[in-house]
Amino acid sequence: MTTAPTIGFVGVGNMGFAMARRALQEGATVVAHDPMPAARARLVDEGASIVDTAAAVAARCAVVSVVVNTDQQVRDCML
């Protein structure tokens, strides 16, 4: 039996949410971070685990999708 992968998502607004939800539907374990409480809450309702930082996502996942809007947001979560 194959273990479902754990996939990380940083940024779970409109696009990131859809991607994370699809991963959950396909049997993956999802760990996510987003600074917006509403974005976090709706993904928890789908079955994801939420962590406090992008670094915490990276620590738990071999694959991380970063879906953010601005250059500054990329710097904030990567550096």
Quick structural gist:
The chain is of the alpha/beta class and 79 residues long. Helix content is 47%, strand content 20%. It has four helices and four strands, in the order βαβαβαβα.
What does this structure look like?
This protein is of the alpha/beta class. 47% of the residues lie in helices and 20% in strands. The chain is built from 4 helices and 4 strands; from the N terminus they run E-H-E-H-E-H-E-H. Helix 1 (14-25) packs parallel to helix 2. The chain is globular, with a radius of gyration of 12 Å. The mean pLDDT is 92.
The outline comes out as globular
**Span from first to last CA?**
37 Å
Overall pLDDT: 92
Beta-strand content estimate: 15-25%
Structural class: alpha/beta
Q: In terms of per-residue confidence, which ranges show pLDDT below 50 for 5 or more consecutive residues?
A: none
Number of helices: 4
Largest sheet properties:
4 strands, parallel
How many individual β-strands? Answer: 4
Helix coverage percent of residues?
40-55%
Neighbour order of strands in the largest sheet:
3-2-1-4
Which series of helices and strands comes N to C?
Answer: EHEHEHEH
